[in-house]
Amino acid sequence: MADMTQERPKRATPKRIARPADRYLAGVTLFLIAALASFFLSIGLWFSGSRDEGIYVGIWVPSILAAGAFWVSAMNARG
Length: 79
Description:
3 helices
């Protein structure tokens, strides 16, 4: 005899949509981590004897921070 119970269809779980505040915080954090990583890599290269490479990597820090400032400005303009 066949079982008369039917399985209920599973509910589709709604996908989490990133809120603007979450994207803003994630972006700021990403740029700060990248700048800090570049800074510490630069220091490590400098003190390990690769001074030219340390200076080159150290120049990335203001560029990364400027890109982050541009991104924050663009996020604020979007609303």
